[in-house]
Amino acid sequence: MFRKLNIFAFFICFCELVKGECDVVTKKQWGGLEPTHVQYLPRPVDLVIIQHTATPMCTTDKACKNRVKNIQDYHMDTLNWWDIGSSFYVGGNGKVYEGAGWLHVGAHTYGYNKRSIGISFIGNYETDVPTAQQLNAVKALLGCGVENGHLTSNYHVIGHKQLLATLSPGRNLWAEIRTWPEWMDDVSSIKN
């Protein structure tokens, strides 16, 4: 009986490792490189910055993995960053891909990286429309982040353009996130 329980416990742990925390596709699963250097993010954080990649959207597992790999290659090889910029990427297939993740400081919003999580929707949401699968995946990710102590229970969601001069997250995604209960309209209290 004890042996069966051990095997069952191992199976449960193995399944958790394979799918990644919070159902995130891990770097290993999408073929990402390890960072060249890391800085740890003090947690829990209370700020989530939503942005878009301003690239073509992806809708299949293969296309989304390739898109995230291309983003990481650009960030590391061309910009000489330590890693891919955002904490997480969300494909049109409804899957969340690990970027810098929950634990490491990202490179998504200059001046705010050391105190926030950056979530990038893959696509250009000036014209693309976020899918229900993407929105549900991000909401589940955020809930899991609170549950696992990565985010405070009273975290705020803001758009990238509230902090920097950019079109990101794009008008269609902007219209959506402004309806979320965690939305923070006035960022004057957190602005650098």
UniProtKB/TrEMBL annotation:
Instruction: State the Gene Ontology terms under molecular function.
Output: N-acetylmuramoyl-L-alanine amidase activity; peptidoglycan binding; zinc ion binding
Q: Name one GO biological process term.
A: peptidoglycan catabolic process
**Cysteine pairs bridged by disulfides in the record:** C22-C144, C58-C64
Q: Which family would the database say this protein is a member of?
A: Belongs to the N-acetylmuramoyl-L-alanine amidase 2 family.
Q: Which residues form the N-acetylmuramoyl-L-alanine amidase domain?
A: 33-170
Q: Mind telling me which PANTHER family this protein's record contains?
A: PEPTIDOGLYCAN RECOGNITION PROTEIN, PEPTIDOGLYCAN-RECOGNITION PROTEIN SA
Provide this UniProt record's keywords sorted from A to Z.
Disulfide bond, Immunity, Innate immunity, Signal
Domain named Peptidoglycan recognition protein family is located at 22-164
InterPro entries named in the record: Amidase/PGRP_sf, Amidase_domain, Peptidoglycan_recognition, PGRP, PGRP_domain_met/bac
Q: Which residues form the signal peptide?
A: 1-20
- The organism named in the record is Ostrinia furnacalis (Asian corn borer)
| Entry-linked SUPFAM superfamilies | N-acetylmuramoyl-L-alanine amidase-like
Q: Subunit notes for this chain?
A: Monomer.
> Sorted alphabetically, which Gene3D superfamilies does this protein's record hold?
Peptidoglycan recognition protein-like (3.40.80.10)
State what protein this is by name: Peptidoglycan-recognition protein
